[in-house]
């Protein structure tokens, strides 16, 4: 057609233009997508914490191997006070327990002391042969004595043992030739105690030398 210009091959109007994505120069050659920051996962965080804990443990072990830390050395004066207070408390507790046990023994002693006269009657009956084995009287005596033993009541005072003024009450002195040491010749009434509490001393007759 007359109005249309004939275009020869190679007459591309954009032939002289350079595409935008093909810019020349070193900057364009090295350019590329910017690196993105790596996202941390839960496993990464936990792993980092475990590594930190392991390092702290190693540091503490090293301090322990090298000796007491300065802070521990500064507290040493108070350790001696702590030991002293601990010992004082242990002694106080022992005294308290001992006092409590003593008060318990005294309470039991006050309850059983009136029964000692009954035990004296049983002893006299036994000496006279009235406690026949198998009789009702003997059974009652056995039960009463067993009950006193369960309360911790202990009898003392035997013939032939050395006289002890802390344990015996001498109600009679009998001169016996050849006696060099005062000894218990006869037990009138036995003594009784509960633990460290003496209910009463033993009433005894004491054998003494003929010259007094």
Furnish the topology, listing elements before pairings.
Layout: H1 26-30, H2 42-66, H3 70-112, H4 116-127, H5 136-150, E1 153-156, E2 168-175, E3 183-189, E4 191-194, E5 197-200, E6 202-208
Parallel strand pairs: 2-6
Antiparallel strand pairs: 1-4, 3-6, 4-5
Structural class, from secondary structure content?
alpha+beta
| CATH architectural grouping of the domain at 153-211 | Roll
Order of helices and strands: HHHHHEEEEEE
User: What kind of oligomer do you see?
Assistant: single chain
Number of helices: 5
Instruction: Give a quick account of the main beta sheet: strands, pairing sense, barrel closure.
Output: 3 strands, antiparallel
Structure report:
Helices cover 47% and strands 16% of the residues. The chain contains 5 helices and 6 strands. Strands 1-4-5 form a 3-stranded antiparallel beta sheet. It has a 3-stranded mixed beta sheet with strand order 2-6-3, with no helix packed on it. It is elongated. The model is unreliable at 1-10 and 15-32 (pLDDT under 50).
């Amino acid at each position: 057609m007359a109005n249309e210009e004939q275009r020869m091959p190679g007459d591309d109007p954009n032939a002289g233009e350079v595409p935008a994505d093909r810019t020349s120069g070193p900057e364009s050659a090295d350019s590329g997508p910017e690196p993105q920051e790596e996202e941390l996962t839960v496993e990464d965080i936990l792993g980092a914490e475990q590594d930190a804990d392991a390092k702290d443990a190693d540091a503490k072990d090293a301090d322990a191997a090298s000796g007491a830390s300065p802070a521990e050395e500064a507290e040493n004066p108070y350790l001696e006070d702590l030991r002293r207070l601990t010992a004082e408390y242990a002694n106080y507790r022992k005294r308290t327990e001992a006092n409590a046990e003593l008060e318990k023994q005294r309470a039991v002693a006050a309850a059983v002391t009136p029964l000692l006269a009954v035990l004296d009657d049983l002893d006299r009956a036994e000496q006279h042969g009235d406690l026949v084995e198998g009789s009702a009287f003997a059974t009652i005596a056995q039960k009463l004595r067993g009950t006193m033993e369960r309360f911790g009541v202990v009898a003392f005072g035997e013939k032939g043992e050395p006289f002890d003024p802390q344990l015996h009450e001498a109600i009679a002195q009998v001169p016996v030739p050849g006696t060099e040491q005062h000894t218990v010749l006869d037990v009138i009434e036995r003594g009784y105690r509960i633990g460290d509490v003496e209910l009463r001393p033993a009433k005894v007759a004491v054998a003494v030398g003929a010259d007094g």
